[in-house]
Design a protein that fits this description.
The chain is α/β, with parallel strands linked by helices and 382 residues long. The protein has 2 domains: 23-144 and 283-351, Rossmann fold; 147-275 and 362-380, Rossmann fold (3-Layer(aba) Sandwich). It is built from 13 helices and 14 strands. The strands form 3 sheets. The protein has a 7-stranded mixed β-sheet, with helices on both faces. Strands 2-1-3-4-5 form a 5-stranded parallel β-sheet, sandwiched between helices. Strands 11-12 form a two-stranded antiparallel sheet. Helix 3 (81-93) packs parallel to helix 4 (105-118) and helix 12 (306-325) packs across helix 13 (329-337). It is globular. The chain starts with a helix and ends with a strand.
């Protein structure tokens, strides 16, 4: 009798606990995020995570998704393609309605076939045009594609700096090699010449050999395609080698705090850049951008960069989709495919060819005496 009562009590306790778990699950909507939280990609990964965290706070403070709270469940992709794939698969197995991927082309390309199989809409930040060429209707790109970025870089080097002999240093991977080739074609089309193309591995720390070859090539300007740490080291070593007389165009990371925190103000001599996002009043959606910067900085004690802002915007667009069509994978995909003129903190988004959502970048220069930029020219894909 006593044993029977114990067993019955245990079953009741289990059912109560299970009911509580189900109730919690029903009170929230979980969205996945496979991001690089550790390793060489972590600088951008942390900003993307913080962008999602701020969005989660803002969405829930405003009433959530039709009364339900939203929560972002993250998995670390590190710097490995196989880890990135496994992170996505783990989130997919949980049958989440939507998943964010990292902002790195190599990981996005590796994961793309699994996204197509899973038939779940994702947003990602990698700029590689090869991703769009897969014609995957479930892939939505949050940042400008590399064809636009290459066109803007050519304009920065040849239109703004008015140089014709260009040297390129790029990271040796799918992103770096592809965008360097896109730029080479743009320079030749405009009557310029690529006098040197040097590459490096993602974990390299000594860039003196590449910089010396740039110097010996007779280059009038240097373009650098790489990740945050790479670009910071190249900028520092360029100055240490006395090469600041060769103007440099830094692409994508130029105005990001995670990169600027690694260099000194004097390292920025004769450096301009191509930026995915410019904040404050210079942003086309000024007041919204100003508030985002203030809120982000207050919460995380660092200013946002283009990675944090586009993932914040992505989360807000997904929240709108969830409110309108519910946590249905196919309906969310269709909603995003038809989305136009969404005014975010980064810029104005709208679904275009190959899932591209953002269609402008800015050529920027540094304000004298400050680690802050101003817009020289905006370049769009229109």
């Amino acid at each position: 009798m006593i044993k029977s009562l114990v067993r019955t009590s245990a079953r009741v306790a289990f059912l109560v606990m299970l009911a509580g778990s189900v109730a919690v699950a029903q009170e929230e909507i979980v969205v996945g995020a496979a991001l690089p939280i550790t390793g060489p990609f972590a600088g951008a990964g942390l900003q993307t995570l913080q962008g999602l965290q701020l969005a989660e706070h803002d969405i829930n403070t405003a009433g959530g998704i039709n009364g339900k709270k939203i929560r972002f469940q993250t998995e670390d992709t590190q710097v490995s393609n196989s880890v990135a794939i496994n992170a996505f698969l783990k989130l997919d197995q949980a049958k989440l309605p939507f998943i964010f991927l990292s902002s790195f082309t190599v990981q996005n390309l590796a994961t793309e076939p699994e996204v197509k199989k899973a038939k779940v809409a994702v947003m990602y930040g990698g700029g590689g045009v090869t991703i769009g060429e897969q014609n995957n209707p479930y892939m939505f790109r949050l940042r400008a594609n590399d064809a636009l970025r290459a066109a803007a870089t050519a304009e920065a080097a040849m239109g703004v700096l008015k140089k014709k002999k260009i040297a390129i240093i790029n990271v040796q991977d799918q992103f770096g090699n592809a965008i360097a080739e896109l730029l080479r074609k743009k320079i030749v089309e405009r009557g310029g010449e690529v006098v040197a193309t040097e590459t490096h591995n993602i974990r390299d720390t000594d860039f003196a050999p590449q910089l010396q070859k740039v110097k010996n090539s007779g280059a009038e300007a240097l373009v650098v395609f790489g990740y945050i740490r790479d670009q910071a080291l190249i900028i520092k070593q360029r100055r240490a080698l006395g090469l600041t007389g060769i103007p440099m165009v830094s692409v994508t990371s130029v105005n990001e705090d995670s990169m600027l925190s690694l260099i000194a103000l004097e390292d920025l001599e004769n450096v301009i850049g191509v930026a995915d996002a410019v904040f404050g009043e210079a942003n086309p959606n000024g007041p919204k951008s100003v508030k985002f910067v203030d809120d982000f900085t207050a919460r995380f004690k660092v200013p946002p960069d283009g990675f944090g802002s586009v993932y914040y915007d992505g989360a807000m667009m997904v929240a709108e989709a969830l409110k309108k069509v519910g946590p249905d994978r196919e309906k969310i995909r269709a909603y995003l495919a038809g989305l136009q003129n969404y005014k975010g903190v980064t810029g104005t988004f709208g679904a275009g060819a190959n899932g591209d959502m953002l269609h402008a970048v800015s050529i920027v220069e540094f304000i004298p005496g400050k680690k802050a930029v101003r817009v020289v020219k905006n370049v769009t894909d229109k």
